[in-house]
Amino acid sequence: WGFLLLVAVLALGEMAAARCPIPCVCDNLGSHVLCRRGNLTAIPSTIPQLTKKLDLQGNSFTVIPVGAFLATPYLTHLDLQHCKVERLEEGAFRGLGRLIYLNLAFNDIDLLYQESLDGLSSLQQLILKGNRIEEIQSGAFGHLGSLTVLDLRANALVYLPDMVFQGLQVLRWLRLSHNTLHVLGSEAFAALPTLSRLSLDHNELQALPGEALARLDGATRLDLGHNPITYVAEEALAMASLKHLFLDHAALQDVAPNAFTRSPQLRTLDLRENQLQGLPPLAGAKGLARVSLAGNPLLCSCLLRPFHNWLARARVQAEGACAAPPTLRGRPLDSLRPPEMRCGPPPLAPSPPVPSEQPKTAGSGQCPQGCVCSPDFRHGSCENKALRGIPRGFPSNTRLLDLRRNAFGTVPPGAFPGLKELVSLHLQSCSIGALHPGALRGLESLVYLYLTNNRLSTLAATTFEGAPRLAYLDLDHNDFTHVPTGIFQLLPNLISFHLQHNSIRELAEGDLAGAEGLRWLYLAGNAIRDIAPRALAPAKMLEKLHLEGNHLEEVPTASLSGLPALSELKLSRNSIKHVGDGAFLPVASSLQHLYLDNMHLEQISPGAFTGLGPKIRSLYLESNKMSNIPDMSNFTGLEILNLRDVPFHCDCQLLPLRRWIDKLNLRIGATCGSPAEARGLKVKLSPTFQSCPGWGRGKAGEAGPDKAMAANKPSKKKRSGKSPARGFKKSRA
């Protein structure tokens, strides 16, 4: 009987191999089928019936029709990333009752229909990241009773209606980061009884959506960072099980003393990189153990003493340092003694009083006709009202003003009278062709200014008179052909400058004059061909430089001199065919993240990465044309390395890379482009290295005589179970 069973298994294997569709690759039993980047336009009809894992990444399906997978009912894993899918027909996945993992990331889906996901009763993970989803029809997830992770990051969601997630009875993690969520229905999360983590960071929420969040009794972690939230009101958050709250990189200026009274389990509170000059004692947060205030302009005067005393009494650990007065600048909060926190003459920009104690100012009950004003959150909105002139008459204590999607055309001088407390101003998509000098006059508290998707081609420096605290300026998707000069002289506090997707052709010397405090410069999607050697020099504190999608033909090495803090450099999608020796030497001591992908790069010189080493955390080289790469054995701190779609020539000259890959705990994606017998195979699995001198020693883990990557110093240490790449699985490159 054992012999007969063996014969049956072998016969099944031969049948599966014989039925493997071209250009796919199948294992012996046909249970794992790979059809990656095969230019397929329809789901292959000859996939073995017993297939369990089907990988169709990188094809061109456009539509997934009804019953597309009825012939493969045993599927447990299905990968449809990067397949140009625009529509999932109702019943597309019918018959896949065993499927537990479905990846539809990075497609062009814009709508989820009611029955699009019908038939997936066992599905546990659904990945929809990086699509164009604007709307989710009611009931779209109604048949996914086993789902535990739903990933909707990086879509175009603006609104979540009530009960939109109905049916997800065991969902644990809902990922909604990097959308444009503006409004949440009060019952949006009502049908998620087991949710433990909710990610809403990097959206457009202007206030804490307390009513919607109150439905999440079991959630323990909430990510709300990178939203334009200016204020957390009294008892704003009622989440009985919440332990970790992230409100970092928002626009916070105030937090009410009892903001977290109804979240009694709260242990950690992340308020980094806001505009807080102080906090009241958070007496309502009785279980709080840690609060992070790093990156806030803390005023360590007598006004901060009540909070400081509360920290000591409640034994709460606090991170953060004083920004003022000058005598205490840089001092950690936990090193201060109460007598040092003195009050002298009032500062130029006093810490605003707690909203719950602030009396109504003149005009606080007014609101222009057709607009909506929220006195509790100090927000005003006239979004998409077809207005042709800037409305006036907002409450004088307004902090956030949303005027998006109107037709103003121009912004005249003094357009915002009486709004001295305004922090965030939204003027996106308003057909603005001119921002006149003095337009922002009187906005002395303004920190955020959004002018995306307008028709601006020039800006006078005097435009920004009266707004000295401006820190974030977004001019993406306008008509600039050069960087507006002179503006930085009037913006001493500017930290982040967006000028992406314009028509800028060059960066000239003097363009950034006065930008001494600039940290993030975004210039992606322009037409930049040339960067003068001294063009970036004034921005000595620059940390991020995004130049992807321009017309550069070489790495701007000379222009990188004098940038000692630069940690992230993006050069993706330029026309750089060759990277020469010492290309990144000027920033070698600080650079951590380097993007050189999708450039049709043909050659990287052996000394191109000279000076770079353990500080490098991520390196992106995917979708290029080189057949080899230089020694990277000293990149011992790598957490991400992407070498996908690079046609490596897998001969003995590549053996050092092959050995180095063996030592990494990263997903790399390196495949052979040649010779013919190795084409399409992972570098790590190519048999062409077996005939190379020293192959046996290489397999044994020895360095061998080569001077290249085989001399990887970390390999001398005994490997432990820990990986230097946190969260990455063992490489199968």
From TrEMBL:
| SUPFAM superfamilies assigned to the protein according to its UniProt record, in alphabetical order | L domain-like (SSF52058)
* Endpoints of the signal sequence: 1-18
Cite the residue spans of the region called Disordered: 327-366, 690-733
Q: Which family does it belong to?
A: Belongs to the small leucine-rich proteoglycan (SLRP) family. SLRP class IV subfamily.
Domain called LRRCT: residue spans? 296-344, 647-693
| Main location (coarse class) | secreted
Any idea which UniProt keywords this protein has? Disulfide bond, Extracellular matrix, Glycoprotein, Leucine-rich repeat, Repeat, Secreted, Signal
Q: What does this protein do?
A: Potential negative modulator of chondrocyte differentiation. Inhibits collagen fibrillogenesis in vitro. May influence chondrocyte's differentiation by acting on its cellular collagenous microenvironment.
What's the name of the protein?
Chondroadherin-like protein
Which segments constitute the LRRNT domain? Answer: 19-53, 366-400
Q: Pfam families recorded for this chain?
A: LRR_8, LRRCT, LRRNT
What does the UniProt entry say about where the protein is found? Answer: Secreted, Extracellular space, Extracellular matrix
Query: What is said about its interaction partners and assembly?
Result: Associates with collagen and binds to collagen fibrils.
Q: What are the annotated GO cellular component locations?
A: plasma membrane
Instruction: Look up the domain of life of the source.
Output: Eukaryota
Q: Where is the composition biased (Basic residues)?
A: 714-733
Record field: compositional bias (Basic and acidic residues)? 331-340
